[in-house]
């Protein structure tokens, strides 16, 4: 299971360029997982990560080929987890 999001719960703290998780958001996501997604089930967290939210004046993600061997998928406006499957397919087709 891939779970992410919730940055709107503490947007000021999450408005950062540091690649590190925050205790508040990790606790928020774990509570959501435990109480809403899979209540009454044991689970183990295999990996935690953080990213930098890329916002722009437009909401449309940028998905394009930059060079013969480079592609980008950026400006997902805080919706990277939700958009990842579709964006991944687009980049795969481009390759």
Describe the structure.
By secondary structure, this protein is of the alpha+beta class. The protein folds into two domains: 1-52, no CATH class; 54-95, no CATH class. Helices cover 36% and strands 12% of the residues. The protein has helices at residues 11-14, 23-37, 80-94, and strands at residues 62-67, 70-74. Strands 1-2 form a two-stranded antiparallel sheet. A hairpin with a 2-residue loop joins strand 1 and strand 2 (70-74). The longest helix has 15 residues, at 23-37. It starts with 10 loop residues before the first helix and ends with a helix.
Number of distinct helices: 3
The number of domains is: 2
How confident overall, as mean pLDDT? 87
Q: Looking across the biggest beta sheet, what order are the strands in?
A: 1-2
Task: Please estimate the helix content.
Answer: 25-40%
Low-confidence stretches: none
InterPro entries: FAD/NAD-bd_sf
Protein name: FAD dependent oxidoreductase
Organism: Chryseobacterium pennipullorum
Task: Name its key features.
2 domains, 3 helices, FAD/NAD-bd_sf, alpha+beta, 95 residues
Task: Give a short summary of the structure.
The chain is α+β, with helices and mostly antiparallel strands. 36% of the residues lie in helices and 12% in strands.
